[in-house]
Amino acid sequence: MRAIQIERTGGPEVMKPADIDPRDPGPGEVRVRHHAIGVNFIDTYFRSGLYPVTFPCVLGSEAAGVVEAVGAGVTHVAVGDRVAYAAPGPGSYAEARTLSATPVVKVPEFLDAPRAAAVMLKGLTVQYLLRRTRPQRDLQPGDFVLWHAAAGGVGQLACQWAKALGYKLIGTAGTDDKCALALKAGAAFAINYRTDDVVARVKEITGGRGVPVVFDSVGKDTWERSLDCLERFGLMVSFGNASGPVPPVTLGQLAQKGSLHVTRPTLTTHLATREAAQQMADEMFAMIRDGKLVIDAPRSYPLEAAAQAHRDLEGRATTGALVLIP
Ligand SMILES: NC(=O)c1ccc[n+]([C@@H]2O[C@H](COP(=O)([O-])OP(=O)(O)OC[C@H]3O[C@@H](n4cnc5c(N)ncnc54)[C@H](OP(=O)(O)O)[C@@H]3O)[C@@H](O)[C@H]2O)c1
Fold first, then answer.
1. Rounded to an integer, what distance in angstroms lies between the CA atom of residue 214 and that of residue 57?
2. What is the DSSP string of 102-165?
3. Which residues of the chain have pLDDT under 50?
4. Using a 6 Å cutoff on CB, does residue 186 contact ligand 1?
5. Atom of ligand 1 nearest to the CA of 243
6. pLDDT at 256
7. What is the pLDDT of residues 139-165, one digit of tens each?
8. What's residue 109's pLDDT?
9. Which atom of ligand 1 is nearest to the CA of 244?
10. Which of 61, 73, 133 has its CA nearest to residue 103?
11. At what angle do helices 176-185 and 153-164 cross, to 10 degrees?
């Protein structure tokens, strides 16, 4: 079975084609034959060594395809079902993968494999961030939220979902063209964070008050500015490190900037039980069925071109989702 794996950490050049044997599923596991494999920024963290892995390591945490075999005790999917998953760890850049059945869900008819692979990990992330990660005073329709990298894979889904919930999403992005994409996806305002003063613009848009919550996946480069955009008792949601990890935080800073709250959530924690994984996916699929979340055909690469996909993603040359086709 063809796969893309690494035997050491480093740049995209460490990703090599490999021939590996698919494993039979054990109790509670399934084997999925992949038709499309999602590419996510987290894949670059495992490749670079920012997140730990054991070698050899097949990268990738998301895919869509068909169930090929089920282990003992698995009842919610059967051989032949069209399924998709966002997995807690790497192993998806391959023609098939054996994994825990917990996060594996059936895919509705209206979603083809490339779109399913484009939306599972990113869409479920937006689900838990907007629906399960709430500031102290909670959010009401009409409230502002600040979302960095709003033209990216996760970002464009967030623009749509926030609009559907009635929130005014202020999106940031690295070029004016990307800002235009965020606005098209549903952002109420867009700020080019490479050329504009984000804090001043946010204060201007919110009448000086700031936002109740910031969703920050950029990390090092935006951390400080994000804190300065929050209203009193606001919630800083740090959920990624596209520019590098956030430097050590002094708790006194949170006090000085207005009794702020901080959380550092992961999709893995939210998907830990079968019930939660299914409930989150059901809600996301309903959003797609009802036309509130429109999933564009993702940019596709052959499996063998996974390294190029990483170069494009880390080079900030992409918008929306990327998938590999095995
Ligand atoms: N914690 C979780 O549960 C979870 C789950 C899923 C994703 N995430 C995080 O969410 C983020 C988005 O993931 P994604 O797969 O959808 O990627 P993406 O947003 O499509 O790509 C990352 C974007 O980050 C921006 N960026 C800012 N500074 C950057 C830098 N120095 N280098 C590279 N990019 C930079 C770029 O947009 P601009 O050019 O507009 O700046 C780039 O397009 C990632 O940080 C990821 O780790 C976290």
1. 33
2. TT-EEPPTTS-HHHHHHHHHHHHHHHHHHHH---TT---TT-EEEESSTTBHHHHHHHHHHHHT
3. none
4. no
5. 31
6. 97
7. 999 999 999 999 999 999 999 999 999
8. 97
9. 31
10. 61
11. 40
Q: Which of 221, 263, 316 is the pocket-test mutation for ligand 1 (most atoms within 8 Å of CB)?
A: 316
Q: Is 173 in the pocket of ligand 1 (CB under 6 A)?
A: yes
Number of helices (H), then strands (E), belonging to the chain: the values are 10, 16
Question: What amino acid occupies position 102?
Answer: T
Atom of ligand 1 nearest to the CA of 241: 45
Q: Are 106 and 81 in contact (CB under 8 A)?
A: yes
What's the CA gap between 100 and 130, in Å, rounded? 26
Q: Does 56 sit behind a cis peptide bond, omega within 30 degrees of 0 on the bond before it?
A: yes
Question: pTM for the whole thing?
Answer: 0.98
pLDDT of residue 31: 98
Angle at 60 between CA 242 and CA 287, to 5 degrees: 80
For the CA of 217, the closest atom of ligand 1 is: 45
Tokens 């918008």 -> residue: 319
Return the pLDDT at 81.
Answer: 98
CA of 219 to the centre of ligand 1 (A): 9
